[in-house]
Amino acid sequence: MALDVMAKTCTFVGICLENIGIMRYEEFISMIFRMDYTPPLSDEYTAVIDTDFAEVPVRLYLPRRKSETLRRAVIYMHGGAFCFGSCKQTALDFLNRRTANKLDAVVVGVDYRLAPQHHFPAQFEDGITAVKFFLQDKILSKYGVDPSRVCISGDSSGGALAAAVTQQMKNDPEIKNKIKIQALLYPGLQMIDTYLPSHRENEHGIVLTRDITIKLVSLYFTKDEALPQAMRKNQHMPLESRHLFKFVNWSTLLPEKFRKDHVYTEPVLGRSTYSFPALMDNRASPLLANDSQLQNLPLTYILTCQYDILRDDGLMYVSRLRNVGVQVVHEHIEDGIHGALSYMTAPLYLHVGLRIKDMYINWLDKNL
Q: Which stretches make up the Alpha/beta hydrolase fold-3 domain (predicted)?
């Protein structure tokens, strides 16, 4: 029954989204996410506080139970293509409550500013501001957190923010307390090549199609319609970006089973008359970081889904991190779809979403 409901919903969304704007898309998402749902009473041991860290809204999940030792902490960046979503969203609120409860950990959900009202780098700036604030000795002490056991994580675009913040903080001399591990759930990590094998195979995919992805990602940078038009043709990058394509060359970075019979075609550069330097910024696309920027990153967990247009971003990041000696744990969900975590609560209770939730929390429990 749940899968039937989901299939009908996705079909309806797929038919309608071509002719609706960002606000109506957000309405569809809020309907699907069922923000009126109340998490089970089994999570009553977690107190929830809405506050802010240096003027960045956050939702704190604090275990009510007394602890004789310092607690672990997880900083979570929500997904939503930088355009919608919140840690108050039903499913992610449930995920963070359950994480705090199962791990006896403090969880910080970061509600960064959203596009199209706020373009890049506002989202990144909010993410790194909140993380830096939390990692202060006085704040960690206030919430009883062990400075050596902090994780940063996120799903989809939140995974991109988590990866970007982790990269930027690695060598920041102002940060005494470092991130121990990072966990990236079906992350979107680059925007310079919009014709990867996963883009081709999932062009008309469940929930997230290629056209919807391009429409939303472009709003991260601008409201100019010229950008999504060029991105659809994979002709949106300038000539001076040529050196970056070795970092996202799927013909060398993807395992053979994902390359299949696809033929690599180098994107056409310099066709657009406009210029968006942010497209070449690794704070927006963490896959564009060079090897030296990736070295010595913390233990990393990356989860990818087969039926996901963003699948290859995560797979390429696994390859790049391993190539520079970073320890990576990769789990691939053969029956997974993008955004599966968002459908694990009422009315769908999608099994694969619940399975991903358990895999994520169990990995954190063993490694944080």
A: 74-224, 278-340
Asked if the bond preceding 121 is cis, omega within 30° of 0, the reply is yes
Q: How far apart are CA 226 and CA 230, in angstroms?
A: 6
What CA–CA distances, in Å, run from 258 to 197, 221, 261, 310, 338? 7, 30, 9, 13, 17
Rounded CA-CA distance 276/224 in Å is 11
SS (H, E, C) 170-236: CCCCCCCCCCCEEEEECCCCCCCCCCCHHHHHCCCCCCCCHHHHHHHHHHCCCCCCHHHHHHHCCCC
Which residues, 6 or more positions from 169, have their beta carbon under 8 angstroms from its beta carbon?
128, 131, 132, 175, 178, 179
Helix axes 90-103, 351-367, angle to 10 degrees: 30
Residue 38 DSSP code: P
SS3 of 262, please?
A: coil
Rg of the Cα trace of the chain?
20
How far, CA to CA in Å, does 357 sit from each of 84, 115, 277?
21, 27, 36
Hey, which residues are catalytic here?
156, 308, 338
Task: Please name the residue ranges forming H helices in the chain.
Answer: 2-16, 22-33, 90-103, 122-134, 137-142, 157-169, 197-201, 210-219, 226-232, 250-253, 256-259, 291-294, 311-323, 351-367
Angle between helical axes of 22-33 and 2-16 (0-180°, round to 10): 180
Q: pTM, whole model, 2 decimals?
A: 0.89
Query: Distance between CA 103 and CA 87 in Å, rounded?
Result: 18
pLDDT in tens, 147-192: 999 999 999 999 999 999 999 998 888 888 899 999 999 999 999 9
Phi then psi for residue 32, to 5 deg, are -65, -35
Q: For 286-327, what is each residue's pLDDT tens digit?
A: 999 999 999 999 999 999 999 999 999 999 999 999 999 999
